[in-house]
Amino acid sequence: MEHEKDEELEQPVSPLGQYFNSSVICLHIIAVLEFQVPIHDLQVFALFKDVFLPISPRFSSIMVEDKNRKKQWRKVDVNLKDHIKVPKFSEGKTLEFYDKCFHGYLSTIAMEKLSQQKPLWEVHIVNYPTKNSQGNMIFKLHHALGDGYSLMGALLSCLQRADNPSLPLSFPCLKPTKSVTFKKSCWRKICWTMSSVFNTVSDFGWSVLKSSVMDDDESPIRSGDGGADFQPICISTMTFSMEHIKDIKSKLGVTVNDVVTGIVFYGTRLYMQEMDSKSNTSNSTALVLLNTRNIEGYQSIDDMLNTKKTKGPWGNRISFLHVPIPKLNKSRISNPLEFISHTHNIIKRKKQSLAVALTGKLLEIEGKFRGQEEVAKHLRRTITNSSTVITNLVGPVEKMSLANHPVKGLYFTLAGGAESLIISIMSYMGMLRVTLKTEKDFIDEQRLKSCMQSSFEIIFKAAMKISCETN
């Protein structure tokens, strides 16, 4: 049980932290480490006491209201036994049995709310082998503590390179989007400015409508009842080769993000077509979550917490972008690469817009005049009016280890939202892990996975065919 430390100064909870822990939204980040070896000998309590808790004061704080009804972080004593769970399954069973137990357990704890009477995190140590690992560690972290960048940075700070712990982990090169400049005519600059203004007005206006009165069509990925946060869920993953994705990128002259997004969109439409042919042309939108930090990669935890110097501060620094999922017409069925080309054009156009910045400003103004609960309702409508949520993070290039226990795989998802489908994407060791969080008994998880895998294979073969024809 935690005891309040009155001598500790209270820190205000950020606006986004309050939105994500309100009466209408309660979001969690679920991250899973898959280990290559058994983890029953891990000194878990010592690791979390000496390594995890010191990372951020948020891991030792609870959210309280002051006398003015403003939410603050208050430091408390942490009893690790209240936060570290070790489930027990039947002994002597098959790998398939434990795999089923693990996924059932993962889905169950993802749905449960964290107690507000203790710091908002839990870790579950699953000491049983599954099809993908010899043991699993599940991190359940409330989104009010920070966004994916912050919490993944905290998690990675506990890990080391498996081949040489003295060397830092490295990541794929990340380059922030640079402002567009033209060295040609003044007329071209004027045209670009006018286009940017038009796109900003159009995108911002559409985003406001999508968050208020305009909702997507009901479809095989959107039930439309607005209450999926109370329904059972399934969490499953699939893996794709980053090398193959880069091959597609090179052949088509687009970005890695364009390829990945195009594959996800095409796979989603294939699933919708299988389940209901009429949904080919339904109006469906993806809510893409964006990191608003202007940085090239993860910073150290010390740098994140140094508010005076950091470019990538701790906390919730995210916004969202509405991206229409291209419709599956006859042309795109026969030529799936057109699907990626169309997706590329949509994203390119969205980049030539300031709608994301204006959306963040709108939420800030709404919070000041209408209060945090009203903004939380606004965000909930934004989620429920869309068909899916897409989020992504970049992971290390090298294999990681935790206390000399090598990590075979790493993936994450969001839980607690009102959407029927969340697609989370993360790279690790040259592979791309796609995680699907689906509403159970509404979305056919296995068929959706099959369609995503078919999408990747179809697009890869089509890209390689173009290459052969060119040569």
In angstroms, what separates the terminal alpha carbons? Answer: 69 Å
- The portion of residues assigned to helices is 25-40%
What is the number of helices? 13
Mean pLDDT over the full residue set: 86
**Main beta sheet, described?**
7 strands, mixed
User: What is the global morphology?
Assistant: globular
Neighbour order of strands in the largest sheet: 5-6-7-2-14-13-8
Number of strands: 16
Share of residues in strands: 15-25%
Order of helices and strands: EHEHEEEHEEHEHEHHEHEHHHHEEEEEH
The radius of gyration is 23 Å
Q: What structural class results from the helix and strand content?
A: alpha+beta
Uncertain regions spanning at least 5 consecutive residues = 1-7, 176-183
Question: Overview of this structure, please?
Answer:
- The chain is of the alpha+beta class.
- It has a 7-stranded mixed sheet, with helices on both faces.
- A hairpin with a 2-residue loop joins β15 (421-428) and β16 (431-439).
- The chain contains 13 helices and 16 strands.
- The radius of gyration is 23 Å and the shape is globular.
